[in-house]
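Hi, here's the filled form for the chain we discussed.

Project: internal
Contact: R.S.
Residues: 341
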Amino acid sequence: MQRKLFYLLLIVLISGSVYSQLGGTHAYSILNLRNSAKTAALGVDVLSCFTDDVSAIMTNPSIISTDNHNDFALTYTALFDGISQAGLAYSYSLGAFGNLGAGLQYLNYGDFEMTEENGDVVGRFRANEYAFTLAWSKMLDSNVYIGASLKPIYSQYETYSSFALAIDLAVSYQSNNRSWAASVIARNIGKQISTFATREESLPFDLQLALYKKLKHAPLSIYASITNLHKWNIREDDELNPRDEVDLNGEVRKENKFVGIMDNAMRHLQVGVEFTPSKYFYLALGYSWKQNREMEIDDTFSLAGLSYGVGLNYKRFRLAYSRNEYHRYGSPNFITLLVRL
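And the returned structure, exactly as it came back:
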């Protein structure tokens, strides 16, 4: 079993090293969006532990379990200024053959005016993206689980359209008492099949490590994700806010190297905490340093990067709400309804 696990991890890591070489502009931004209220509240992209939120299969197929049999989830997200997202997810257990999951993400960019070069309005058009997910997972032994997803993606902007295929590969370890878990996930390995025009664009590949720990003597659980394991430098270059400052005499003051290294390292980390005082209720809080650094406004107070949410459970129904503070002038709200059919 240890040899099997070694080979699985090797395949995932090799896929990361191969796709990390791809350059250019990424298409299909829908693949980067969080698709459930719980993950958004925790401020992480993926979960590594078994969960009653079947929407999590969209990003980590290896955590689909028999506990999710016949679970259904519906999520709606109000993003920014007429942009919205909706998602469906469903899971079904096949017994010894593993577990299946299916999902759909829909991103609506809203209505746009079609104009001539002189500004005359001649019509309107819409822009949409769709991402379908067919996922499978299987238990290798009582602690190790594997999973894979096939994801067709379709985008249409006015008369331009594009199609791509992607896969996710994942392996998870769950402790015997389910008090801690870890997953390695290679997300969005794939290729653009048809392009919008003549230029081929890459998919937003990400190699992630997700961790989970439930405290023994407190109703608290800690979540963490380390993103972009295949790429160290993920700091953006902003010409309007250079890191090297120039004073009035024209002398350049270089950024402190240690500060730069720590800033880059923290951008890889996402953390969240879940407080569950009873089986009927939870509170969640999360934080992303990367989102804060990219979205904050200099010399102003900002909650960018902070996320929070609440969940209610009653019999076969679960309702979750969260808010992710992107920017002081706009933050998305997530609502997820989960039903055990």
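Let me know if anything looks off before we file it.
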